[in-house]
Design a protein that fits this description.
It is a single chain. The chain is mostly helical. It has six helices and no strands. Helix 1 packs antiparallel against helix 2. The longest helix is centred in the first third of the chain and has 16 residues. The termini are close together.
């Protein structure tokens, strides 16, 4: 699966925050989103974070942005969330992507 450098870095930070267990799920999305450089990806991640904060599942929101999130990436997120192992799934993904 190919991904942009921005999405990889966002995913790395998102995973790190999730792994600590010190932040809410929405905070784990919003903190790295706020750190992004201004641009389309930052705007998309802010929109994703806001929709998740409103109660929408992350994988459903990501499907709305197919140019940013591949079907494989969305499927990986859905699988990790359904199994309650998103942090493990993200770690495996990051290990394979490096």
């Amino acid at each position: 699966m190919t991904m942009s450098k921005e999405l990889w870095e966002f995913t790395r930070q998102f995973h790190g925050l999730l792994e600590t267990g010190e932040y809410s799920f929405v905070e784990c999305l919003s903190i790295p989103a706020e750190r992004l450089h201004e641009g389309d990806f930052k705007q998309i991640m802010i929109e994703v974070t806001n929709k998740v904060a409103s109660g929408y599942p992350l994988h459903h929101v990501m499907k709305e942005y197919p140019d940013t999130f591949s079907p494989e990436f969305v499927s990986m997120i859905r699988s990790g969330m359904n199994e309650g192992k998103l942090d493990i799934v993200l770690q495996d993904f990051l290990n394979q992507a490096t």
